[in-house]
Write a structure and sequence with these properties.
heterodimer, A: mainly beta, four-stranded antiparallel β-sheet, 5% helix, 31% strand, B: mainly alpha, Cytochrome Bc1 Complex, Chain D, domain 2
């Protein structure tokens, strides 16, 4: 359907044509009014390869661009073509400045991207050689209120498109519907409550007329949840807790007898993937709370450190699979769950896969959640010798114990608070920063954090509402982590049906950016030292790089305007405490807040 | 060498641990600050809050915290003297997550009598930002003026730190 106000006769004429035809006409009518985002378009992003209209590229989480003008032969000629300075610099809460972690969206020459404090920018990139900020919506985030209970930076991972709106969130828990053409806020809704230690950092997932997000706050004693907003009304549609309540399936895995599931963690802070065929979305779930005192919360602690398969219309859980029962490591499993069809033992299977924080790659049956394959992907691994070949459970999981030891000494305990070395480090493996999938080559690219760290357990005190002394907004983590050695990194290519390693590139720095795969047979990643690089999709050999002069903490995308391909990435980093203190050569790196765009 | 360091570390550790049990006595006068003193305290607050982001680990009221910044001690309950705290800010604490903030720490013997090589695995991490002597002096003065030896932070302390344009202090209102 075309823009309103053009007259019925014209609308009918163009509606009779192909979707492509309608889209071209819409483009010709810009910049006044771009086409509305529809469910049909969201289901078929491959019809508009010049655009990047969904957070992960497509609902299946592939982060794969069909554009191939830039390829392995000519990428050596890639160069920065323009940059745009953004804001979000202000300090707030525990942070000296905002961070940039967002995946931009581009639709018909307009980029939509948020900064860490939740200002949304509409940047006109249609000229090709420059970007002009058309409008900026500043939500006026309460920076101290939200920033004091944000564990890990001032983060906002992206926006979503719906009809003529941009759907965004802010760290202080609000969701916004913004007029795409003008930047005017149509409505806002309070979703997460920082009074309870909840924040929002996740890019919304729009399925039909629902915007799905989840609460961050796994170190602040929240009870995590997935939440849907009815975009037609701006009101709550449903909320599903990731930690089941009394009488709900999985609640029996909280065996403390003191209802500690009420502050059990299970945060949600990276966008789910969606399978239209089965109308199921796959949401990764965060660590159990308190993070490092597993004796406080005896039992497997479902559904912390798990993936849930849910129904979008009502939030009902179809199935769940838990990666690390009674998680003593802070191995959140919130990150993306790509949907891939592949042959397994000669048979066509419908998979949902996950490069887990815990250092293993998993392939599950996405219809029933059964375990298909799992394989270690980190160089170093010591908390378990492997996975059970039938169930995928850690081999040293003890079904007769409520508190899991796993490998002795890899996590702290009340008897022995300071752990020995833990590999992979509590950071993972892989944190939220996404993998990318090339369906033409059948390869999944995992940008990893490599190396190990340590845990120091402190016995957790109870919340005031459970007879203790801990008040809302106070830390509820059962201790701390300590990094003593440099972390490093890698980029790996695996067969998603088996996890088998196909190519491997060791990197100096741990990955805090995420990957983009393209049909030009390239993989792009950003580095904490500011290096933005392109790699051969088969060998992972670096073919090109450009140093942006400050850390990159966001995933790249690709888009096209007037037939020319661009690679875009937000540049400017939190100066991670996991990295900078151990990398003296990065000591004086300043931060920045920039958009970088590259082309041939 | 190791014995000497152990002795100093132990004394430091005892001083820090004892802070949790006893009401500390410190030498800094509670007299009215001069204008220069007031400026230095405000400067120290900025360093604590934003430049060195001490509050990330120690919390805004310096009452200590857990999590990714480590099990950071309460500075409200500390037994350290201003001189000892100055040394800890500049040199960090060996074998812990407390970082050093003197650019030249461990390049010579100024920190506990040890160089980086002698420290080996006990080497503390570098702080995100190095601090000059004046900056260290300011943040120590700030802590002793506002936090050290005080009971739990009050609503007034919160507003003093965060200002009034935020809900941050609402839960502390009586």
């Amino acid at each position: 359907m075309l823009a309103n106000g053009r007259g019925n006769a014209m609308s009918m004429k163009f509606f009779a044509g192909a979707v492509t035809g309608a889209l071209l006409t819409a483009t010709a009518l810009t910049p006044a009014r771009a086409a509305d985002m529809t469910n049909e378009r969201a289901l078929n992003p491959q019809r508009e390869p010049q655009n990047w209209i969904l957070h992960h590229g497509n609902y299946q989480g592939h982060r794969f661009s069909l554009l191939k003008e830039i390829n392995t032969d000519n990428v050596k000629n890639l160069k920065p073509v323009f940059t745009v300075a953004l804001g979000g610099f202000q300090s707030g809460g525990r942070y000296a400045f905002g961070n940039l972690e967002a995946t931009p969206l581009v639709e018909d020459g307009i980029m939509y991207v948020p900064d860490g404090w939740g200002s949304v920018y509409a940047i006109d990139v249609s000229a090709g050689k420059k970007g002009v900020i058309k409008w900026k919506m500043d939500p006026g985030t309460d920076r101290a209120w939200a920033g004091d209970v944000a564990c890990c930076g001032v983060n906002n991972r992206g926006v979503a498109l719906w009809k003529d709106k941009v759907i965004s969130i802010a760290l202080d828990g609000r969701m916004f519907a913004i007029n795409k053409a003008t930047g005017e806020v149509a409505w806002e809704r309070k979703v997460a409550d920082p009074a309870l230690g909840e924040t929002l950092t996740i890019a919304p997932l729009v399925i039909r007329d629902l915007a799905i997000v989840g609460a961050a706050g796994g170190e602040f004693g929240i009870r995590g949840y997935i939440d849907a907003t009815d975009l037609n009304t701006g009101k709550a549609a449903w909320r599903t807790y990731t930690i089941p309540g009394a009488g709900e399936p999985g609640n029996e895995t909280w065996k403390d007898g003191k209802e500690r599931w009420k502050h059990g963690g299970g945060s949600v802070w990276e966008t789910a993937t969606y399978d239209p065929e089965s109308d199921t979305f796959y949401q990764g779930v965060g660590n159990a709370g308190p993070d490092w005192d597993p004796e406080y919360r005896a039992g497997d602690n479902k559904w912390a450190a798990s993936v849930l398969a849910l129904s979008p219309n009502d939030g009902k859980i179809k199935w769940g699979y838990q990666y690390t029962p009674n998680d003593p490591y802070d191995y959140d499993e919130i990150s993306e769950h790509p949907i891939i069809n592949a042959k397994v033992n000669g048979e066509d299977r419908k998979l949902v896969v996950h490069a887990a924080r815990n250092g293993y790659f998993y392939a599950l049956d996405r219809i029933n959640g059964s375990f298909i394959a799992g394989k270690q992907y980190t160089y170093e691994m010591n908390w378990t010798p492997g996975l059970d070949p039938k169930t995928g459970r850690p081999l040293n999981y003890n079904p007769n114990a409520d508190v899991q030891v796993y490998t002795e000494g890899t996590h702290g305990s009340r008897a022995r608070p300071k752990s020995d070395k833990l590999c992979p480090a509590h950071t993972g493996g892989k944190n939220w920063e996404p993998t990318a999938y090339n369906p033409q080559l059948g390869l999944l690219y995992i940008p990893s954090i490599e190396g190990c760290d340590y845990i120091e357990t402190v016995p957790q005190k109870d919340f005031v509402d459970q007879g203790g002394t801990v008040r809302p907004r106070e830390r509820f983590s059962g201790g701390a982590t300590v990094i003593r050695e440099r972390l490093y990194g890698s980029l790996k290519a695996v067969d998603p049906a088996t996890g088998e390693l196909k190519a491997d590139l060791k990197l100096t720095y741990p990955n805090y950016s995420g990957a983009l795969a393209t049909a030009g047979n390239l993989v792009f990643i950003g580095g904490v030292d500011g290096t933005f690089s392109a790699h051969d999709a088969k060998t992972l050999k670096e073919l090109w790089s450009f140093n942006t002069g400050t850390g990159i903490n966001a995933p790249p995308i690709s888009y096209a305007v007037n037939g020319k391909q661009y690679i875009a990435v937000l540049v400017g980093s939190r100066q991670s405490q996991n990295v900078i203190p151990f990398s003296p050569e990065l000591k004086n790196t300043s931060t920045a807040s920039m958009l970088f765009v590259f082309s041939l | 060498m190791k014995a000497v360091m152990k002795d100093r570390s132990i004394r430091l550790a005892v001083a820090l641990a004892a802070g949790a049990l006893f009401a500390p006595v410190h030498a800094l006068a509670q007299a009215q600050s001069s204008a220069e003193e007031a400026r230095l305290i405000e400067f120290g607050k900025e360093i604590f809050k934003s430049k060195a982001v001490c509050q990330y680990c120690h919390k805004w009221d310096a009452s200590g915290d857990q999590g990714y910044g480590g099990n950071a001690l309460s500075l409200r309950a500390t037994q350290l003297t201003p001189e000892q705290m100055t040394e800890v800010v500049k040199c960090g604490r060996p074998g812990t997550g407390m970082p050093y903030h003197d650019r030249f720490a461990y390049t010579d013997k100024r920190c506990y009598g040890y160089t980086r090589e002698e420290m080996g695995k006990d080497m503390p991490p570098a702080g995100n930002d190095f601090l000059s002597n004046r900056e260290v002096d300011a943040v120590v003065k700030y802590l002793f003026a506002k936090d050290v030896g005080k009971g739990p932070a009050t609503y007034e302390d919160c507003v003093d730190f965060w200002g009034k344009d935020t809900k941050q202090c609402d839960p502390m209102k009586k």
